[in-house]
Design a protein that fits this description.
Length: about 350
């Protein structure tokens, strides 16, 4: 029996609301986390990537499994071989009844240097086939400090709309009310395990010895991490200075063009006044064929936005490293005094 029109309308509205639910949390299985950490640490300091598999359920993106992409040399045919490798891996996973739905990808980074144009292009390529996907970033260098440096990132909807139009002029950014903080959105990560794994870990917890990670948390020296972050921050400041020079050059050219246009208009108006006095038809006050009336192309602000994002990331990391270092020093001082 077919559904009445009222019920069909209600189902359509409910389905629309379900699809429109924003992404609230990324729930990732503990096994997938361990696979990501193992792949990234074994290949560090080289950067690696891999595929995330799982389910998109309402406002939760469940990551249940993952597999690494092979590391190839630059002169090899990466694109075609990579696509065939992914298809073959997903076919094998489907045969053993493992989730083979792509929900994004993961990649390693070095001290948080991941906000690049390449990452945005990868997001846009995934968006062509997947309505909602995330990129999980893992930083082995920061994890050596005793912190699980794992974060899930996605592009904001407003930025993706602007990127499709490839229009990052100042006027368009002001119209969309878009700033450098509106490019990426970090989604909270929730690590989950099955009941059997949780029970097994509880049994092992009492006999677990002190690990190297526990000792890493007590290291007082943060000199290597601080130096690298400051070095990357200086490089980003140089890049931002170069971007600012591009805009200064653009505004100088624009000001020079406007001055030339005003001088040409004054000359043309004086000539038209003379022609009117002589009884001739006035000449048009605009000449599109004249080079001074061609608009000066405004440089894109995307690169400066990404560099500013990266500078903010490095500053936050320096603040975090320095804060942890001071806490350890005060703790050691209190222990020595006691």
């Amino acid at each position: 029996m077919a559904n009445p029109p009222m019920i069909r309308s209600f189902l359509q509205v409910a389905a629309t609301e379900e699809v429109a639910q924003p992404l609230r949390v990324v729930q990732i299985e503990g096994l997938a986390v361990l696979k990501i950490i193992k792949h990234c640490k074994e290949n560090a300091p080289a950067l690696v990537t891999g595929q995330l598999l799982g389910l998109d359920v309402g406002s939760v993106l469940e990551v249940t499994n993952c597999f690494p992409f092979p590391v190839r040399e630059e002169d090899e045919e990466i694109e075609a071989d990579g696509a065939n490798y992914q298809l073959e891996m997903m076919r094998c996973l489907r045969e053993v009844n493992v989730d083979n739905n792509t929900v994004g990808w993961y990649q390693s980074t070095l001290y948080g240097s991941f906000q690049t144009v390449e990452l945005i292009e990868t997001f846009m390529n995934y968006q062509e086939n997947i309505k909602r996907c995330v990129c999980i970033i893992y930083d082995p260098a920061r994890s050596n400090q005793g912190v699980l440096a794992l974060k899930a990132m996605k592009l904001t909807d407003s930025f993706m709309e602007l990127y499709r139009n490839n229009n990052f002029t100042g006027e368009k950014l002001r119209e969309k009310n878009l700033s450098w903080v509106d490019i990426f959105e970090e989604i909270p990560i929730k690590v989950s395990n099955s009941a059997l794994i949780s029970a097994f870990m509880t049994e092992l917890e009492a006999d677990t010895p002190v690990t190297q990670c526990d000792y890493d948390r007590l290291q007082l020296s943060t000199k290597p991490q601080m130096e690298r972050n400051v070095e990357f921050l200086i490089d980003c400041m140089d890049d931002l200075s170069m971007e600012q020079q591009k805009f200064q050059f653009y505004y100088r050219n624009l000001s020079r063009q406007q001055a030339q246009q005003q001088a040409w208009l004054q000359k043309r108006r004086a000539e038209n006044n003379a022609r009117k006095a002589a009884g001739d038809e006035p000449l048009p006050e605009e000449d599109p064929s004249n080079p001074i009336f061609k608009p000066v192309p405004e440089p894109s602000r995307l690169e400066s936005f990404l560099v500013t994002n990266q500078i903010s990331n490095y500053c936050n990391q320096i603040n975090g490293v320095a804060g942890q270092s001071f806490s350890r020093l005060y703790l050691m001082k209190a222990l020595q005094e006691s």
